[in-house]
Design goal:
With 152 residues, the protein is mainly alpha-helical. It is 67% helix and 5% strand. It has a two-stranded antiparallel sheet.
C-alpha cells in the first residue's frame, strides 16, 4: 500500500514541478500542428550575399520563440545523450515511438528528446526545422501535456 501511495505522490510531484514549464510550451501547439511536415526556415540570400558568403537560414519567428521559451524551462537536460543510449533511441522512428509510449514517470525521455533538438539546434540550425517537420516538438509537448493533465 505504501509503495502505491509513494508512486502517486511521486507522480503528483512531477506534475507540480513541470506544469508551469509545459504550459509555457503548450501555447505553441496550434502553430506546431499547422507547420507539421513543412519547412519553417528559408535561406537568406538577399543583397547579393550569395556572391560573398554562404547563405544562412532564417527561421520563423514563432519557432525562435518556442526555442527561447524551451531554453528558459526545466525541460532541458544537458545529459540527453545518456537518455538516448539508455533507452536505445537512434532514429526519428525510435524518438516518435518513445514519445508515444512515455508516461508521467518517463519525463526524462520526453525531456531528452526535446533537449536534443533545442540544444542541438544551437549549433545545427536544421535540427529545429527537422523537429517541426518530423512532428518531434509537436508530439513531445502534446505528450507532456497529456501526462500532466491525466495525473493533475
Amino acid at each position: 500500500m505504501s509503495m502505491e501511495k509513494d508512486d502517486i505522490e511521486y507522480r503528483r510531484r512531477v506534475v507540480n514541478e513541470y506544469r508551469p514549464d509545459v504550459e509555457r510550451l503548450v501555447r505553441y501547439l496550434p502553430w506546431l500542428e499547422e507547420k507539421a511536415g513543412r519547412n519553417v526556415s528559408e535561406n537568406f540570400e538577399g543583397s547579393g550575399i550569395a556572391e560573398h558568403s554562404i547563405p544562412f537560414p532564417v527561421y520563423d519567428s514563432t519557432l525562435l520563440g518556442f526555442v527561447k521559451d524551451a531554453q528558459q524551462t526545466k525541460l532541458l537536460d544537458r545529459n540527453y545523450l545518456y537518455t538516448y543510449s539508455r533507452h536505445k533511441i537512434r532514429t526519428v522512428q525510435d524518438e516518435l515511438k518513445a514519445i508515444s509510449q512515455a508516461d508521467i514517470t518517463q519525463m526524462d525521455i520526453l525531456k531528452g528528446i526535446l533537449s536534443k533538438y533545442v540544444m542541438g539546434g544551437m549549433t545545427k540550425g536544421r535540427m529545429w526545422t527537422e523537429a517541426v517537420q518530423n512532428r518531434i516538438f509537436l508530439k513531445v509537448v502534446q505528450k507532456m501535456k497529456e501526462n500532466l493533465d491525466f495525473w493533475g
